[in-house]
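Lay summary. Proteins are chains of building blocks that fold into shapes, and those shapes determine what they do. In this project we predict the shape from the chain. Here is one chain we studied, written as its sequence of building blocks.
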Amino acid sequence: MTVERDDMEAVAKAWAHVRANLRRSAGQRLFDQWLKPVVLIADSSREAVRLGLPSAFMTQWVRNHYAERLLLEFRAVIPEVLSVGIETLSEEPQRVLKVEPAPLPVAANQAERPAFDPRFTFERFITDSTNRVAFNAAKAMAQPGTPQFTPLYLHAGTGQGKTHLMHAIGQAFLDANPQATAIYVTAERFMFEFVQALRNRDTHAFKTRLRSVDLLMIDDLQFIGGKDATQEEFFHTVNEFMSSGKKLVIAADRAPQALEGFEPRLAGRLGSGLVADIKPAELELRRRIVERKLGDMPAVDMPSEVIDLLAARITSNVRELEGALNRLVAYANLSNETITIDFAVTTLGEVLRSAQRRITIDEIQRAVSSHFEVKQIDLISERRAVAIARPRQIAMYLAKRLTTRSLPEIGRKFGGRDHSTVIHAVRRIEELRGKDIEIDGAVRTLMRTLEG
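And here is the predicted shape, written in a compact code that computers can read:
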């Protein structure tokens, strides 16, 4: 396949940008060992990027750890990219493009102008009651002038949007204040740089660099629990920002009072600003997130029942939900398959099983009988009245979607019915959800109840 010259130039420029981002985020040691050897194969196109490595072992490692990240990085630059293949270079000569990484900012300015992820903006953060307070507080922190509160302390489980909001704050703040300075750093990096400063007997430069910026953001604070010297320095940094009225944003996986290995005075100081939590995304929010991500993939046709499957079954965190979506789309593109329920279940089988809370058919039957005000025993009876048959079909549909039970097992749980009866019920409810608002609403409500 011959690739147009414009396509190659665009992909080469994107690759330079991606390499620079990887070098910055991964750290020099990891980058040199695993990512620096990656090369761009010359017949890459806007839709299908091909990357090569010198050995099968390195290829597998990069696939396992960076496949999704590489796809997202390329898409951030070229939205038309559908797949990023990572392959082992063959012994036969392959033409690779020698692309130098895009230059990083000048060292003196690098920390004050961090490279925020362009995907993580306020406009792309989807809100509901689970995260609205944190979102509004983040937007307020990004406004020019003296902050209404400091520090802003964000806490949530992994993959719920803390880092997204921090990147959004940084970008909006610097856009509104072109002459301002900011630092975004993880707590582990803060600790590493502080220890290095101690060894080099140059803590003054470390303190001056951090405390001189207009906005300081520190992520994953829980990782300095038990590190007394680092906490002492961090405590003084917090005090400095609070006394000077400058902007400070902290993120962790739990509330200040629940941090393990932290001095009470530090936990108290962190809690003296605004503490905003982000709760796990509920079903409707997860569905909107999937729809938003699909909006960035205009060439992807995904049925609503597949969107419902992803939103209903992957409940642990938003990051895993996005990863599952990216994997499903990539597999469909690579195999030239149409995305259907069966294809999604086959492709994401392990993901769906590991992410799913163990919902039982008995739970489903109890929830359905309560919602429709019918007796649970009626759902397994031979009664065929619509008032009983429709809830029974909905219960079978939910059993198929929310459990890993086989069709024969589901049938046996509903009065020893044949698997073909279950198939009919599932198809009938799928059909009704597309045209009956009440049925669709009942199914959504029951899914939300069962997940809770």
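What the prediction tells us: Residues 101-112 have pLDDT under 50 and may be disordered.
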